[in-house]
Specification:
Helix content: under 10%
Radius of gyration: 24 Å
Number of strands: 19
Structural class: mainly beta
Number of helices: 1
Distance between the termini: 103 Å
Low-confidence stretches: 1-16, 238-247
Strand order of the largest sheet: 15-14-11-12-13-10-9-16
CATH class of the largest domain: Mainly Beta
Mean pLDDT: 82
C-alpha cells in the first residue's frame, strides 16, 4: 500500500517535462470577475512546450496597487501549448482599475532540487481593441526612428492614459521607445482613431527583426505599467528601411474644431497624408 501511495504522489511530476518556463510565452487572455458569486477566473495561454508544474495565481494587483485576489496551489500541472483557467474565490465584490498585474507562481525542476519562480503578467481588457502596424524606419534622423500606425476601436475599460510604446527584442532588451519631447500625443489613445507614432531607436537592430511592442500605461506621466504586449516583426523582404520623403499630399483643411472649411480668414489646420499637421492663418486677397 505504501508503494502505491508513493507512485501516486510522484505521477504529477513524472507527467511533465522539466525545462525552464519562459514567462514571455505566457499570455492572459481574459479575466472574468463574478461579483454575484464572488469568483474570479483568469485564463492564461501557455506557449511553452513543456507546460508548468504546480502553477497558481498567488496575487492579482490592480492599477492603483490594490490586491484583488490571492490564491494557493490547486493544480498539479498544466500541459504546454494549452490554455488553463485559474479560478479563485474573492472576499468582496471588486471593480478593479486596469491594468492588472498577475503573479503566476510555478515550481521549477529544471535544475538540481526545485525552486519556486514567478512570472508577472499584465492584463488590460481593451488590448484587443488596439491594432499596431509597422510602417518604416527613417534612417535620415538622429537617432533613427521607427514609424508605426496605431488603430483603435471601442475600449471596454479606460483609454490607456498618458500611454506610450516601447519596443523590446527577443532577449527583453529595449530597442526603441517614444520620447515625450517629440511625441505627437502624450495624453493616451483615443477610441476609434488612427494615428502615427514614432519610436527612437536606442540600439542597432538586425533585420529581419522579431520582438514585442509594449503599450505602457502612464509612460508620459512618470508612473509606467505595462498594459498590452503585441508581437512585432520587421521582415527583410518587405519595405523595412526607407529614406523618409518630405513629399506629402494635403488631405483636408479644417478649422480648430475639426470641421472641414474653405474659409481662409481664420486659424486653419492643414492635415497631410504623412500624419503631420500645420497650423496656418492665410488672408485671401
Amino acid at each position: 500500500m505504501k508503494k502505491l501511495i508513493i507512485i501516486l504522489l510522484f505521477l504529477p511530476v513524472i507527467g511533465f517535462s522539466q525545462s525552464q518556463v519562459n514567462c514571455s510565452l505566457l499570455e492572459v487572455l481574459d479575466v472574468n470577475i463574478d461579483n454575484s458569486n464572488l469568483i474570479i477566473n483568469i485564463v492564461i495561454s501557455d506557449g511553452n512546450s513543456s507546460g508548468m508544474q504546480y502553477p497558481y495565481i498567488a496575487y492579482t494587483v490592480d492599477g492603483i496597487g490594490d490586491t484583488i485576489q490571492t490564491g494557493n496551489i490547486n493544480l498539479f500541472g498544466t500541459m504546454g501549448l494549452d490554455t488553463t483557467n485559474y479560478g479563485y474565490g474573492i472576499s468582496n465584490p471588486i471593480t478593479p482599475i486596469y491594468p492588472l498585474r498577475i503573479f503566476l507562481v510555478h515550481t521549477d525542476f529544471s535544475t538540481t532540487g526545485s525552486t519556486t519562480d514567478t512570472c508577472v503578467l499584465s492584463y488590460h481588457p481593451s488590448c484587443d481593441s488596439v491594432i499596431t502596424t509597422f510602417n518604416y524606419i527613417d534612417s535620415l534622423t538622429t537617432p533613427y526612428i521607427i514609424n508605426l500606425s496605431i488603430e483603435t476601436f471601442g475600449f471596454s475599460n479606460g483609454n490607456f492614459g498618458y500611454g506610450g510604446f516601447i519596443l523590446l527584442d527577443e532577449l527583453g532588451d529595449t530597442v526603441g521607445s517614444e520620447n515625450i519631447n517629440t511625441a505627437g500625443n502624450v495624453f493616451g489613445l483615443m477610441e476609434y482613431n488612427t494615428e502615427n507614432r514614432t519610436l527612437e531607436i536606442a540600439q542597432n537592430i538586425t533585420i529581419p527583426f522579431n520582438g514585442t511592442l509594449h503599450l505602457i500605461n502612464g509612460w508620459f506621466a512618470g508612473n509606467p505599467s505595462t498594459s498590452c504586449i503585441f508581437p512585432f516583426t520587421i521582415n527583410g523582404s518587405s519595405t523595412s528601411i526607407k529614406e523618409y520623403t518630405t513629399n506629402k499630399e494635403l488631405l483636408k483643411i479644417t478649422d480648430l474644431l475639426g470641421r472641414r472649411t474653405k474659409q481662409k480668414i481664420q486659424p486653419l489646420l492643414y492635415l497631410y497624408d504623412d500624419g503631420s499637421v500645420e497650423r496656418k492663418i492665410i488672408i485671401k486677397q
